[in-house]
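Q: How do we represent a protein-ligand complex in a form that can be generated token by token?
A: Start from the inputs.
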Amino acid sequence: MLIRHTPDLRESEVTDRRLYLDRRRFLALGAGAALMGAGQAQAGPIASYAKGVVVLDDKPTSKEAITTYNNFYEYGTDKEDPAKNAPGKLKLRPWSVAVEGECARPGTIALEDLVKPHRLEERIYRMRCVEGWSMVIPWIGVSLAEVLKRFEPTSKAKFVEFATLADPVQMPWIKSRVLDWPYVEGLRMDEAMHPLTLLATGLYGEELLPQNGAPLRLVVPWKYGFKSIKSIVRIRFVETQPRISWEKANGREYGFYSNVNPEVDHPRWSQASERRIGEFRRRDTLMFNGYGDQVGSLYAGMDLRKNF
Ligand code: MTE
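Then emit the structure tokens for the protein with MTE bound:
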């Protein structure tokens, strides 16, 4: 059984700037098949997945920081709360996901069956939180587009809505009503079908820990972190733009698109720079978090100040 520990990744494996510059090469690289090891244990090693694909030449943030500095309001609002509160509380198996709405093949599907038919890949992505900090995370997951296609969305499916589990027994903190539960997020269909969009099941070579949104979370690296919804139990194809949790909580500050954009300030702070966790000096924030070559065309002609 091959177990890869990402800290041992050689620089040549994690850094290939040509991948960033050549989207076709990036897409082609994913073509090597790898089967998923459907490990049952919490945070067990993942047996097999395709070699790391990096889209920007950044060094991954430490596993320690990625797994202890979190936002997961279902387990408290402080950064250290999810790592303290979610393990042991969130029951990871059995887990199933209801796929509903505008599609020919709706149904409730066990996590293993949802993921297993697909190529499991490592993707090392920059993530930028709307609060102004960022990390580089070696995710493991499957292409969301490949998963969604199996349910045969109809021509009426213009958006995809995702919901997190909202169980007051496993998540007693949701009684606090800081957000309107369940946590809901959404993507436009073309965003959901974009090859960068990932359904993640692991990071750093291991299954996701509860605090990072086990057993299944979304990863959308060109958008602010809150779009990357955790512990997903429902995926719904819809005709109209979903009302997302943060928009409901404060629509003046958080919009549906939430593309990383250094030119559009949050009403209470600048978005021009960020603190990469583990670094001292602030970095300039890049348009679309540096993924503009890949995703910029999705927003051609849109006013990104209005559609923030
Ligand atoms: N998903 C749910 N269900 N609940 C949350 O509170 N927080 C979001 C996002 N997904 C959140 C969520 C925010 S604000 C961020 S920045 C990322 O998760 C953080 O992901 P990480 O803790 O794995 O870094």
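The first helix runs from residue 11 to 14. The pocket of MTE is lined by residues 70-74, 129, 164, 183, 212-213, 225-226, 228-231 (CB under 6 Å).
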